[in-house]
Amino acid sequence: MDPQLLAGIYSSTAIVVGIVLAAAAFGSALGWALICSKFLEGITRQPEMRAQLTGQMLFTGGLMEAFPMIVLGISMWFIFANPFASAFQAAIGG
User: Fold this and answer.
1) How far is C-alpha 10 from the geometric centre of its chain's CA atoms?
2) How many Å apart are CA 32 and CA 43, to the nearest integer?
3) Most distant CA pair in the chain, distance
4) Per-residue pLDDT for 86 more than 70?
5) Where in the chain are the domains?
């Protein structure tokens, strides 16, 4: 078993997980920006709909916030139960 190759698998996985988490955070921030801008646009068009638009904004934002949490869970699985390292160890018989 080559420890350098195993370390390379772990380090590559950590780098990719970091990139994926950064993309999820950027997507979440962009989503919140779009939701809030459309919310303010809707209020300026119809101020009497503010209560309904607030509920819709918070509901949609809550659904949108679930995405980074799912990505975080999958990322933690890749970090702590690395399937690539397990496959490598099984392939070499270790």
Assistant:
1) 20
2) 16
3) 69
4) yes
5) 28-79
Residue 58 in tokens: 């918070």
Residue 46 binned pLDDT confidence (cut-offs 50, 70, 90): very high
pTM here is 0.80
pLDDT at residue 1 is higher than 80:
no
H or E element, residue 79: helix 50-80
Torsion angles phi and psi, residue 10, rounded to 5? -65, -40
- φ, ψ of residue 29 to 5 degrees: the values are -65, -40
21 CB-near residues (< 8 Å, 6+ apart): 71, 72, 75
Which residue shows structure tokens 């949108």? 64
The pLDDT of residue 94 is 61
- Give the position of tokens 């995405």: 67
φ, ψ for residue 73 (rounded to 5)?
Answer: -60, -45
Q: Which amino acid is at 77?
A: W
Number of residues that this document lists for the chain: 94
